[in-house]
Design brief:
single chain; 108 residues; alpha/beta; two-stranded parallel sheet; 6 strands; 19% helix; extended
Length: 108
């Protein structure tokens, strides 16, 4: 529970339980949580690849075709395609800032 809510609550009750919850707040977490194929790729949607390993390939409808990718993230949301090295995935927030500066909020 968010600290901002719970710190102000004077009538809260806590019941311990193991629900297996994880905060999916990054692409690295998505890669950890989803199953991997024989080439250590996480594939959501349609993908065909040659010599592609350790990558996250997410498509909301389009076929993703790759050659020679290693440790990359490719995400197709239908109106935006993100391609970046897995090691730099945390920099997505910088792209969000760029979109806002460029008045491209429709892609957020």
């Amino acid at each position: 529970i968010d600290y901002g809510v719970m710190e102000r609550a004077d009538n809260a009750v806590v019941i311990p339980m193991d629900v297996g919850w994880s905060d999916v707040g990054s692409w690295a977490t998505v890669v950890e949580l989803l199953p991997k194929d024989a080439e250590d790729n996480v594939v959501v949607g349609e993908h065909i690849g040659l010599d592609t390993t350790g990558s996250l390939l997410y498509s909301s409808g389009q076929l993703i075709a790759t050659i020679g990718l290693k440790d990359m993230i490719v995400v197709d949301t239908g109106d935006v395609v993100l391609v970046c090295p897995r090691a730099r995935a945390q920099e997505v927030k910088n792209l969000v800032d760029e979109l806002r500066r460029g008045q491209k909020d429709e892609y957020l």
